[in-house]
Amino acid sequence: MYSGNQWGGSFEIADGAAEDDHSRNMDLDRGALSRQQHHELDETQQSWLLGPPEAKKKDKYVDLGCVVVKRKLLWWAFWCVVAAFVLIGLPIIIAKAIPHKKPGPPPPDQYTEALHKALRFFNAQKSGRLPKNNGVPWRGNSGLSDGSDAKDVKGGLVGGYYDAGDNIKFHFPMAFSMTLLSWSVIEYSAKYKAVGEYDHARELIKWGTDYLLQTFNSSASTIDKIYAQVGVAKINGSRPDDHYCWNRPEDMAYPRPTTAVSSAPDLGGEIAAALAAASIVFRDNAAYSKKLTQGAATVFKFARQMGHRTPYSLRQPDIEYYYNSTSFWDEYMWSAAWMYYATGNTSYISFATDPRLPKNAKAFFNILDFSVFSWDNKLPGAQLLLSRLRMFLNPGYPYEESLIGYHNATSLNMCMYFPRFRSFNFTKGGMALFNHGKGQPLQYVVANSFLASLYADYMEAVNVPGWYCGPNFMTTNDLRDFAKSQLNYILGDNPRKMSYVVGFGKKYPRHLHHRGASTPHNGVKYSCTGGYKWRDTKKADPNLLTGAMVGGPDKDDKFKDSRNTYGQNEPTLVGNAGLVAALVAITNSGKGAGVTAVDKNTMFSAVPPMFPAAPPPPSSWKP
After folding, report:
1. Is 561 tagged catalytic?
2. Strands annotated E in 223-297
3. Helix H or strand E encompassing 201
4. Of these residues, 113, 457, 478, 570, which one is catalytic?
């Protein structure tokens, strides 16, 4: 028998060692050998008494390929994993499996509440055959014979919006209102979605653009006229018309003639801007978006036609008194920018940045009133729109020089908003007097508050913290604070502690200069003059014109809630379009969903890829 080899290795080595030991033992002393045998006998005898020696337990190992480990260690690791799963993993799995009620969105701020109401105003101003879900129970179909004298317009001029408290449809401010609404949806679509108004806003825009497409032959490539309005209002007239009569739109029984113009660089430019901006809003509807861009191209061409460049309101008494246009170069700049964003056609941006255009528009002349955005002055809006192109895409030569000029002008316009620089007067209560104390001050306040908020978002989107007004560094928060102060004034933070938006807050105007709101919806059709009693009554309006922003207080913060003070108590499309845009820009509801969080290139999808996507370093944008 061979002895066992506990360590492994060659057995031949063990056998050789045994032979050497035997040879050496041959030389040992016999006495020593006797003693050794006796000792071994003693050990044997002891083993009888004590039993066999206890065998040592052998450690078992597992070869894992790259390492050999004890089996005990493997078992220990395994049970640790099992324990961790039971103590930590299993509770997590169970907790996730239990259905949880998702936390609701944070409560809307006051700006969102006002936004919901402000949009409803447009539902109340609709003309034509109303949808069943219009949401204004005291309104019905009206103006179904509008445009019947326009024999070249198939189906007439049915639809659109009534401008204000009367029943005239002025196409110039209507188009501007649609452009403003579209701009706000383009920049803040995520916010509109967050507050549940995205589809509503788009429906309101489409109601307007569908109508604007009827005001000219939008299927043609060349036109020679455009319809400027439906209805008339003679000053101090004595015959039935839209001012002489006090009727609900549903009860109109007097003539409503149309007004066509063959020269309209301003009106044509504004309608082109409205259709182009809306085409961006509806890019998810390719057919409709294309229809809008084609119509925009046609009417823009008409607006630029040589020999037809006199303002649309010139020598038009039915227009001039109400919506007189003082220039058309601003509409050229405004519409060209929108046409470029909508189509990507570089001829439009080349025109917008041609040095002769800002010169003719007096864009860089530092004229105070030219810094105020309004239905008659698009310069501040156009300059901001073109600044957007420089800030986000930086197209460079040959556009850079003009774009720098527009960007500098925009920064100066923003400086003028602040009371500390004393460009404009403010009431003691804090309202900016952008129109120098004349009637309808709030429509100017909201339009320019929108620009202030938007410029702040543009700067933050490109990581620019602010800009300089002379030696004073102004931050994006300064701009937002200005916009908020103006909106807060409108919503009730004013000396009268009243809201100038109907239905918002507890105290708001109750006697609007508005035929539909003041005349009862009681089944009685009142005559032209039969409605005077509702105009003159001291009773509150029987129909709540929810969301209507009135004209606003005077330069002393005084306000008379009377139907006779139309400069203070009449709402307008333009006013509410600016209000909607300013509210969605400033609201914190859906925060993080502004232009700083969404794709900044939303408007650039049609822009040629020749432009680099990355903006230049912020330092190069200093005015």
Report:
1. yes
2. 226-230, 258-261
3. helix 198-212
4. 570
Residues 581 and 122 sit within 8 Å (Cβ to Cβ): no
> Which has the closest alpha carbon to 589: 199, 196, 281?
196
Residue type, 347: S
| 171 catalytic residue (yes or no) | no
User: Do residues 543 and 121 touch, judged by C-beta distance below 8 A?
Assistant: no
pTM of the full structure: 0.82
pLDDT tens, 93-109?
A: 776 777 666 555 567 89
Collapsing DSSP to helix, strand or coil, 107 comes out as coil
Which residues have a Cβ under 8 Å from the Cβ of 311 and sit 6 or more positions away?
263, 264, 265, 266, 324, 325, 326, 327, 328
- DSSP annotation of 195 reads T
Say which DSSP state 62 is in. E
Beta strands 169-170 and 472-475: pairing type? unpaired
Q: Residues 481-504: pLDDT tens digits?
A: 999 999 999 999 999 999 999 999
Longest CA pairwise span in the chain (Å):
158
Residue with tokens 């060659």: 10
DSSP 130: -
pLDDT of residue 65: 65
**Please, what sign has the CA dihedral across residues 247, 568, 432, 380?**
positive
d(CA 230, CA 211): 12
Q: What is the pLDDT of residue 35?
A: 46
User: Of the listed 116, 407, 513, 514, which one is catalytic?
Assistant: 513
Q: Is 354 a catalytic residue?
A: no
3-class secondary structure, 75: helix
Neighbouring C-beta atoms of residue 7, cutoff 10 Å? 5
Comparing C-alpha atoms, which of 604, 589, 549, 583 is closest to residue 186?
A: 604
Report the chain's terminal Cα–Cα distance, integer Å: 103
Residue (of 78, 48, 73) closest to 62 by Cα position = 73
Alpha helices in 309-440 (DSSP H): 317-323, 329-343, 346-352, 356-361, 379-392, 400-415
Instruction: Give me the pLDDT at residue 84, please.
Output: 73
Which stretches of the chain score pLDDT less than 50?
1-41, 43-51, 596-599, 608-623
Torsion sign across C-alpha atoms 325, 276, 121, 184: negative
